[in-house]
Write a structure and sequence with these properties.
The protein is mostly helical. It has one domain. It is 62% helix and 0% strand. It has 4 helices and no strands. The protein is globular. The model has no long low-confidence stretch (mean pLDDT 92).
Length: 60
């Protein structure tokens, strides 16, 4: 079964990424900081460009 990613999930991932608080490959910390499951984080990491394009994220 595919992991469904919502815009809110992606935004939670980006919030951690933009905070600079942890290495994004340290999944345990990303799980704690984002509130997302390991599966959702891996899905976002694998398909980052797709989600970025879908929600037209502007890098800050």
């Amino acid at each position: 079964m595919a992991t469904k990613i919502t815009k809110e999930n992606f935004q939670a991932y980006l919030k951690v990424q933009n905070s600079g608080k942890t290495n994004m490959f340290d999944l345990r910390n990303v799980v704690k900081l984002s509130g997302l499951s390991r599966e959702k984080i891996l899905e976002i990491m694998t398909n980052y460009r797709k989600y970025k394009k879908r929600w037209e994220v502007i890098e800050t």
